[in-house]
Amino acid sequence: GDSVTQMEGPVTLSEEAFLTINCTYTATGYPSLFWYVQYPGEGLQLLLKATKADDKGSNKGFEATYRKETTSFHLEKGSVQVSDSAVYFCALSERLGGGTSYGKLTFGQGTILTVHP
Amino acid sequence: DGGITQSPKYLFRKEGQNVTLSCEQNLNHDAMYWYRQDPGQGLRLIYYSQIVNDFQKGDIAEGYSVSREKKESFPLTVTSAQKNPTAFYLCASTGTGAPSGNTIYFGEGSWLTVV
Description:
Structural class of chain A: mainly beta
Number of helices of chain A: 0
Helix content of chain A: under 10%
Number of strands of chain B: 11
Number of helices of chain B: 0
Number of strands of chain A: 12
Distance between the termini of chain A: 41 Å
Largest sheet of chain B: 7 strands, mixed
Strand content of chain B: over 45%
Strand content of chain A: over 45%
Structural class of chain B: mainly beta
Low-confidence stretches of chain B: none
Helix content of chain B: under 10%
Largest sheet of chain A: 6 strands, mixed
Oligomer: heterodimer
Shape of chain B: globular
Radius of gyration of chain A: 14 Å
Largest interface: A-B, 28 and 31 residues
Shape of chain A: globular
């Protein structure tokens, strides 16, 4: 079945440092790829997504490129801020039951990021 | 503003009781989902519904039940048969087809604790 593997955390950085969180996946089909962010006590917010090979998703200074050849979707940010401290989840989605909606997300285990001033 | 509303945010349940978590969306989305999150883990799919009056089991449906009588509502009942119900529960929805069907929106979650 489908699976997502994220680099283990927690990750602790100083403000303005460069961030990389690795994510690789296995999938039988041609999934869409996502990064979600979860702040303490809250639900998940979509950070960025990519729907086909070589697509680059970007948002709030974060970027990730859909690499089909390496089955990867690594998250990067050039200069992190304290406000980026959160849990980051890599996920893929596939169509449900032959329908047209994408909802069966397969998640990685999450990476806790802590940014110090 | 459009979004997904879950309630209650915090809920305590005695062992042997059933509890129902509410999920309402005003995004006009056809598909809705319930996920469970345990500490240090990703999310696991409990149930999903792609259309009114129809729903399917996800990966961990045992001990849970749902209904989808209205497009905007997808309540989840955690029954006494669920052996380890203490968790964070997230409701989500998507439209159908591209591009809206490709993005999943989440509610803010409900914390359920068994006491």
